[in-house]
Structure formats: structure tokens, C-alpha cells
Amino acid sequence: MEATIERILLASRPEGVNDESMFERREGDVPTPEAGGLLVRTLSLSVDPYMRGRMRDADSYAGPRAVGELMEAGVVGEVTESNHDRWERGDTVLGNLQWAEYATAGGHALTPTSPRRRRTSESRGCPAGRRTSGC
User: Fold this and answer.
1) Angle in degrees, CA 14, 47, 54, rounded to 5
2) What is the tens place of the pLDDT at every residue in 15-72?
3) Are 63 and 103 in contact (CB under 8 A)?
4) HSE on the CB side for 20, CA within 13 Å?
5) Strand locations in 35-114 (E)
6) SS3 of 8, please?
7) Mean residue pLDDT across the chain
8) Binning pLDDT at 50, 70 and 90, where does residue 129 land?
9) How far is 51 from 20, CA to CA, in rounded Å?
10) C-alpha–C-alpha distance, residues 22 and 52, integer Å
11) Which of helix, strand or coil describes residue 125?
12) CA-based angle 64:19:8, to the nearest 5?
């Protein structure tokens, strides 16, 4: 495994259209999962409209991220290390994790993804091509 990983932090509050200058890429050490936790390798992450509210320092149903703090999102990932009896190395999971190549999570904070899914992006919602509300 890599000795360091890339992580994405909020560098500034949005003003106008979002662009790369609002984010900072920073190297960090691969995190170590605590007792009952997991190390998850990010396969896919979701960038959703609600995140703009989290990047602003304003009232919102989702609390704001602090400038300099790691961004978070819905992530589909692969368990690479497990200290939890429910999860094994190689399991594919869904959870709210940091924007990073690897992140840690508590074992109860994740949901298994279906092994029948063909693409990791399908684990975040409706399969590609399904545009109906009942998927």
C-alpha cells in the first residue's frame, strides 16, 4: 500500500461558480482504522448539489465544512483492512467518507453494496439509464 495518499480539503468558500481553486490537494499518511473500524479504498465518490451548502458558512440543513477541513461525500469503496466482525477485506461498501484515496470508518457506519451491481456508480442510486422515480 502507498505510504501517503492524496486528500481533498476545502480551501475557500464559494463565490460565484465553483472551480478547482476552492479545493486543496494535500498528501497525508494512510489512516489506521481503530478497533471496530475499517480502512476503505475509494472507488467512486458522489459530488452532489447539497455540498455547495456545506461549503458555504450559512444556515443549511447540512452543517458547513470549515475551511481547511477534509471534504466528505457518499463513497463507494473496497474494504482493505477490517477490525470489525461484519466486514472482510474485499467487501464493497457505501458510506459517507472523506474525499481521499483511503478513509477510515466505523463498521456500523457503512452499508454493503449489491454484488450484482455492474458499476460502482450504480450503488449510489438508480442504475444508469433508469430515469423513473420508482427505481
Assistant:
1) 45
2) 888 888 999 999 999 999 999 999 999 999 888 777 887 888 877 777 788 899 998 8
3) no
4) 1
5) 37-45, 72-82, 92-98, 102-106, 111-112
6) strand
7) 82
8) very low
9) 14
10) 11
11) coil
12) 60
Unique residue bearing C-alpha cell 470549515: 66
> Is 94's pLDDT higher than 80?
yes
Cα Rg, the chain, nearest whole Å: 16
Which residue, among 52, 4, 12, has the nearest Cα to 30 in the 3D structure? 4
| Domain locations along the chain | 4-115
Grid coordinates in use for 22?
A: 476552492
Q: Which CATH class is domain 4-115?
A: alpha beta
Alpha carbon distances (Å) from 126 to 65, 97, 113, 119, 120: 28, 20, 13, 11, 11
Q: What is the pLDDT of residue 53?
A: 77
